[in-house]
Amino acid sequence: MGVIIAVANQKGGVGKTTTAVNLSTALALHKKKVLLVDFDPQGNATTGMGVEKSVLKFTVYDSLINNLSLRDLLIPTATPLLYIIPANLDLAGAEVELAGLTHRESVLQNKLKEIKDEFDYIIIDCPPSLGLLTLNALVSAESLLVPVQCEYYAMEGLVQLFGVIREIKDSLNSRLRILGILLTMADRRTNLTQQVIAEIRRHFPREALRTVIPRNIRVSESPSYGKPVVLYDPRCSGAKSYRKLTREVIKRVQKR
Amino acid sequence: MGVIIAVANQKGGVGKTTTAVNLSTALALHKKKVLLVDFDPQGNATTGMGVEKSVLKFTVYDSLINNLSLRDLLIPTATPLLYIIPANLDLAGAEVELAGLTHRESVLQNKLKEIKDEFDYIIIDCPPSLGLLTLNALVSAESLLVPVQCEYYAMEGLVQLFGVIREIKDSLNSRLRILGILLTMADRRTNLTQQVIAEIRRHFPREALRTVIPRNIRVSESPSYGKPVVLYDPRCSGAKSYRKLTREVIKRVQKR
Ligand SMILES: Nc1ncnc2c1ncn2[C@@H]1O[C@H](COP(=O)(O)OP(=O)(O)OP(=O)(O)O)[C@@H](O)[C@H]1O
Ligand SMILES: Nc1ncnc2c1ncn2[C@@H]1O[C@H](COP(=O)(O)OP(=O)(O)OP(=O)(O)O)[C@@H](O)[C@H]1O
Ligand SMILES: [Mg+2]
Ligand SMILES: [Mg+2]
């Protein structure tokens, strides 16, 4: 019974793609069958998994607008048990094209129904906005993972995001729960990081995950090799913390 | 005759707001009369300039949807000659509400016409997307400043952005020019930064600005004090590089 986790935060550059790519890969290394859905027109998760965008005939756009089934779109990756549904610039058009439909916020949910049971986990990487694409992901998911950079502006956005989550729970998807808030790019030497971590743990004691992802150059190098950092440099601090996150996510999902 | 500069890049977290806030302030310190338009529903530029969002009665949203004039919305800041038009969450609604209008991409342009000549510079901070808000900014502006983080994913987005710019020049705004590509959060000690800078200078020799903004903790601390880094810590490397950027921008604008 596939657990659907949306990785979302409208603040840009907080580590959504990096988290989606590494969590998916680490879950597959735990022998879970995983589907990663790239739901950002930038297609960073597609590139981060080593898929060449320019040769793709079909992407997730074709399931939303041209009614292709997701089963026809998924591509195997270098990691056994991990599959990806790629994205490219076409997806930017979907935001406008979906707006005209009656059930515009549940198009992805209906598509995922067809294949949900074939996977243990489905991870959705969202774009940095609260538009129709992210809305579709939040309606489809029962769990939400929110990466937050250890920076001031990133904290500001949380209040807005949690307000939108409450609205979605009340009207469109009562199953949606916050799986956790993940602190990313932490540099423990700085006061700012310490203040943000303390602030988040104070305001969101239940949601804040124990795992904190450190800032680590190997993490930002890995996309240029088309590999998640857990494969690119398994012994670095970034890879270790993403493996720790994966164990914490598995435990939190089992508790539900 | 106000020069309108849009600060845009659909990639998230590349330094758009930090650049808009510091460039605006440094231009005002050069005795230019400046208007900063916060055009991101996150309202980070509003917070970064020390404006308390919760007490605002009107924001830029009211000019787009309730037809208030921008002159009624601008607020003075702590820096003489610098004014801001604030934003808050309401602006997120504008993306959908504008979609139904006939000239939906030129609403901001028409509003700016009324006050354009009262300022030397108008700086627009854009959200991390290529939706209707950013489109309105690109139709209003004659100059585009593109911050790019010294990271792999940030480079990937440039190809998409330049494709959109070409379309806008051909159809909606023939005056639009790229003022420059600004490399941000550079850590010269890493290979990744060196590679990205070399790659950008090779692909975009004319557009790449000479000024490079270093990664500097004082820059990321400044928003929590409601001040741009050029006021918060004028002697740090981040502030010095933003002052250098400002001199380079003034020169490039004069050459046009
Ligand atoms: N722990 C880390 N240490 C160092 N760099 C990191 C880390 N996590 C992410 N990065 C880098 O920071 C940048 C932003 O991360 P990423 O692209 O994953 O964020 P995002 O939230 O998906 O961005 P967007 O809002 O554009 O979708 C990327 O260049 C990435 O390589
Ligand atoms: N030169 C720098 N050194 C260190 N930190 C920086 C620097 N420039 C920006 N930052 C920090 O990096 C984060 C991202 O910057 P900023 O919010 O300006 O980017 P943005 O492109 O406006 O993001 P968004 O896409 O969400 O609008 C912020 O927390 C900011 O304080
Ligand atoms: Mg991303
Ligand atoms: Mg911003």
* Structural class by sheet pairing and helices of chain A: alpha/beta
Shape of chain A: globular
Largest interface: A-B, 39 and 39 residues
Query: How many E strands of chain A?
Result: 8
Runs of chain A with pLDDT <50, length 5+?
none
Q: Going across the major beta sheet of chain A, what is the strand order?
A: 3-4-2-5-1-6-7-8
Amino-to-carboxy terminus distance of chain A: 13 Å
Q: Quote the average pLDDT of chain A.
A: 96
Largest sheet of chain A: 8 strands, mixed
**Share of helix of chain A, binned:** 40-55%
Name the quaternary structure.
Answer: homodimer
Written overview of the protein:
Chain A is α/β, with parallel strands linked by helices and 256 residues long. An eight-stranded mixed β-sheet of chain A has the order 3-4-2-5-1-6-7-8, with helices on both faces. In chain A, helix 8 links the parallel strand 6 and strand 7. In chain A, helix 1 packs across helix 12 and helix 6 packs parallel to helix 7. The model of chain A has no long low-confidence stretch (mean pLDDT 96). Chains A and B meet through helix 2, helix 5, helix 8, helix 9 and helix 10 of A and helix 2, helix 5, helix 8, helix 9 and helix 10 of B. The complex binds adenosine-5'-triphosphate (ATP) (2 copies) and magnesium ion (2 copies). The site of one magnesium ion (MG) has 4 residues of chain B, from helix 1.
